[in-house]
Design goal:
InterPro entries: Cell_wall_metabolism_enzyme, Dup_hybrid_motif, M23ase_b-sheet_dom. Keywords: Coiled coil, Signal. One of its GO terms (molecular function) is metalloendopeptidase activity. This is Peptidoglycan DD-metalloendopeptidase family protein. It comes from Shewanella gaetbuli. By secondary structure, the protein is of the alpha+beta class. The chain has two domains: about 210 residues, no CATH class; about 160 residues, Glucose Permease (Domain IIA). It has five helices and twelve strands. The strands form two sheets. Strands 1, 4, 5, 6, 7, 8, 9, 10, 11 and 12 form a ten-stranded antiparallel beta sheet that branches. It has a two-stranded antiparallel sheet with strand order 2-3. A hairpin with a 2-residue loop joins strand 2 and strand 3. Helix 1 runs antiparallel to helix 2, helix 1 runs parallel beside helix 4 and helix 2 runs antiparallel to helix 4. The radius of gyration is 34 Å and the shape is elongated.
């Protein structure tokens, strides 16, 4: 049994190391790409056309960086869930172990008393009992009584044996779970390191992007490109959304929905973003890694990286209503998945080139953005 447990733990550890090595190779490749682009930017600093080209390359690299962060964050989150589940199972096993120990002690005490009583009563010669002067009825009662005591002792011995066997099985299960727990802890440590490395790589890429956006004209152009990307995705989402009678939309939920995450509103719907560009959603500043929840039940119709908004999820709620969640660290759902009201669908992050963790949240009706504050309380 122990051999199988250690073999399983070795397989798990081997898988973890292989996965970690593959991620490191990908990270090294992207670091090499970044150094190459940095050299080109330095050599072509005064060439606006070339700078724009390098910005596009950096944006593509940022996408890779943030997608890698999303994968690493997903693995870290999976490790946390696994750790929590195994810890809960171990706690349950420990409670059961204590119960079995108590039962074993009680059974041992009962059996000890029965054996002591049998010893004090002495050995009974049934032939003498038959030949003595006692009545047959008395002898019959005595025989039934002694048979009862004998059966009780046999029952007590069997119960003690079963409890001991259960206790041994439970101890093996505890050992197995402890091995799994150790493997998950190692995995979590490695995934946390991988996540930190990916975030460091992303920051270097982001620094280079900021160098290409030094003037307001370039910044405005960037926002326009991002708006156009979002508009295209929303239009595609509207086409992809199919009529489903079970989805009732959000019309009757105005002022009744909860915000998708707890945080401070830093940008409000309709406020100026840059020039004529206004915010079409609400930005909530919140701790990185905090859960993002679906504001209502629906179906995921988009879940991917989008320029300027990072890891984005769009959920269709029916009747032309949809909600959009951006800047996520990682997404838990994919296109085609259904979500429940209040279900965790992502984690707060800073994807899309954000310097601070936040959630970009929109509600749209028939493709047009509406103020989320009219629906969320």
């Amino acid at each position: 049994m122990l051999t199988r447990v250690f073999l399983k733990a070795s397989i798990i550890a081997g898988f973890i190391l292989t996965s970690f090595a593959a991620s490191s190779v990908d990270l090294n490749k992207r670091q090499s790409e970044l150094k190459s682009i940095q050299s080109q930017i330095t050599a072509q600093q005064n060439d606006l056309k070339n700078t724009s080209k390098q910005r596009e390359k950096l944006m593509a690299l940022l996408k890779k960086d943030e997608q890698a962060i999303a994968k690493a964050a997903q693995r870290v989150n999976d490790s946390k869930i696994a750790l929590s589940n195994i810890s809960a199972q171990l706690a349950k096993l420990e409670t059961e172990h204590a119960s079995l120990i108590s039962r074993q002690s009680s059974q041992q005490e009962t059996l000890s008393k029965q054996l002591s009583s049998a010893y004090l009563a002495g050995n009974h010669d049934y032939s003498k009992m038959m030949l003595n002067q006692q009545s047959p009825a008395t002898i019959e009662r005595m025989l039934v009584y002694y048979q009862y005591l004998n059966n009780a002792r046999i029952k007590a011995i069997n119960e003690l044996k079963q409890t001991s066997e259960k206790l041994e099985q439970l101890q093996q299960e505890q050992l197995k779970k402890q091995q799994q727990l150790n493997a998950v802890v190692i995995d979590q440590q490695q995934q946390a390191k991988q996540l930190a490395d990916e975030q460091k790589q992303r920051q270097m890429t982001l620094t280079q992007i900021q160098r290409t956006l030094s003037d307001k004209g370039a910044q405005l152009e960037q926002l326009q490109i991002e708006e156009a990307s979002l508009k295209r995705i929303v239009e595609q989402a509207v086409i992809a959304a199919k009529s489903n009678p079970s989805m009732t939309g959000l019309a009757n939920k105005k002022g009744k929905l909860s915000w998708p995450t707890k945080g401070r509103v830093s940008e409000r719907f309709g406020s100026s973003r840059s020039g004529q560009i206004k915010w079409k959603g609400t930005v909530l500043n919140a701790p990185e890694g905090q859960n993002i929840k679906a504001v209502a039940a629906g179906k995921v119709i988009y879940a991917d990286w989008l320029r300027g908004f990072g890891m984005v999820m769009v959920v269709d709620h029916g009747k032309g209503y949809m909600s959009l969640y951006g800047h996520a660290q990682t997404l838990f759902k994919r296109a085609g998945d259904t979500v429940k009201d209040g279900e965790s669908i992502a984690l707060v992050g800073r994807s899309g080139g954000q310097s601070e963790p936040s959630l970009y949240f929109e509600i749209r009706h028939k493709g047009q953005a509406v103020d989320p504050a009219r629906y969320c309380r």
